């Protein structure tokens, strides 16, 4: 019987990502929002693959994180724990590697260790975080915040576009909302957390590098704005007498772009812009828009936000528009731990790849875990110009294969530092 040769690890991981992408909330593209049937199917697949890979324990926690533990000694708790992971939810019409690569790759690494009968000198935990993007309920990092014992219970009352509260969505999926703050990870033993993630940008691609070390993660603030003008007849209301909420919003969008073009890594985006219940022949009385402002430095970001607050107030005053604002996320810029950045650099060099460090403009679960342990990240090259949060997001099997080898080298060198 010819032996069935498994595809190389990199290809296997891509095939897993393809299988997860078959589960979507939308028939024509990949959307996997928190606690939908597609989301639950993905969680079940991750748990199955963890068991098949040889993890000693696999569990679903109170918010839907899928946690696999590969123990130093089966049946015992080692003195220390090292964790890795990322999120398995997606944005709307997103890519299949954002988050998921950071769960699937370490599962494949453990499968290799288990197949070789090798154990690490610490318990090694791979976490599929249930929610990071904030797509369904607005709150972000729901999985990693619960894992580190910092879950904001107020989010349980947030409702989705259909008016379903998060607590009801949890119950519907068989979870008990009362447990979300009593089921944190084993953070007292957590010595280090690392995250492998696609770069979601063009830097590694432009430099011809398969992987890179993350120096720091940009801090972000997200806000929801409601501009309240006056609805009126599109045909009979003279232009000079209007309080058009959409025109005010248009000025706000351009003010965000103008202020955030000042550089130093500052970025600003209005990703959602809506005239609720709008009609063609009615002057927009209300307009809702989102604001996402980030920078590698919190003071730089907050100075931009202060300027925008003043400019938005002036726009609304001049146009006779009311404004309400809700801040739904604020995460500080997060430095990656120098000691583990060096271990990643050495692991990359050991595989013959030039070492390049780069900041992350995207947010990651590592920002939340950094509240309780030192964190580090490895980026994997993105194809298609580095596009992400887009179905064109892509990586190659070769790069993923190399990233898995580098991760294994990193893990073994980390083990030597923690012995
Ligand atoms: O928005 C972000 O940076 C991440 O993809 N959630
Ligand atoms: Mn994302
Ligand atoms: Mn991500």
From TrEMBL:
- Keywords assigned by UniProt? Hydrolase, Manganese, Metal-binding, Zinc
Tell me if Methyltransferase is a UniProt keyword of this record. Answer: no
Q: A Gene Ontology molecular-function term?
A: hydrolase activity, acting on carbon-nitrogen (but not peptide) bonds, in linear amidines
**Keyword Nucleus attributed:** no
Task: Name the residues that bind Zn(2+) 2.
Answer: 98, 133, 389
Per its UniProt record, the required cofactor names are: Zn(2+); Mn(2+)
In this chain, Zn(2+) 1 is annotated as bound at: 87, 98, 197
What domain of life does the native source organism fall in? Bacteria
Q: How is the cofactor bound?
A: Binds 2 Zn(2+) ions per subunit.
Q: Where does allantoate bind?
A: 222, 281, 294
Where does the record place a coiled coil? none
According to the entry, every stretch annotated as the Peptidase M20 dimerisation domain falls at 225-315
InterPro entries linked to this entry: Amidase_Cbmase, Bact_exopeptidase_dim_dom, Peptidase_M20, Peptidase_M20_dimer
Extract the SUPFAM superfamilies matched here. Answer: Bacterial exopeptidase dimerisation domain (SSF55031), Zn-dependent exopeptidases (SSF53187)
How it assembles, according to the record, is: Homodimer.
Q: Which family does it belong to?
A: Belongs to the peptidase M20 family.
The record's NCBIfam families line, in alphabetical order, gives: hydantase (TIGR01879), PRK09290.2-5 (NF006775)
Q: What is this protein called?
A: Allantoate amidohydrolase
